[in-house]
Design a protein that fits this description.
This protein is an all-alpha fold. The chain contains 3 helices and no strands. The model has no long low-confidence stretch (mean pLDDT about 85).
Length: about 70
């Protein structure tokens, strides 16, 4: 699977579990794609741990802005 296909699959699972709206799905897809790109860049730079930790923190912050608890 390509990176985008993996991100679509993850986003689809999240959407089902969290009952996301179409607008939220689009935003979550982009957030997940940004995270995947961040991980890929970390491996290329050889700074996996530091970059991945920052990417995960940013991912969590971004998701909290999109997903509301009802």
């Amino acid at each position: 699977l390509s990176k985008e296909e993996k991100v679509k699959y993850i986003t689809k699972k999240m959407a089902k579990i969290l009952s996301l709206t179409e607008e939220q799905k689009a935003k979550v897809f982009q957030i997940n794609l940004d995270r995947a790109n961040g991980h890929e860049n970390a491996y290329k730079q050889g700074r996996k741990k530091e970059v991945i930790q920052n990417a995960i923190a940013r991912w969590r912050t971004d998701l909290k802005q999109v997903i509301t608890v009802e």
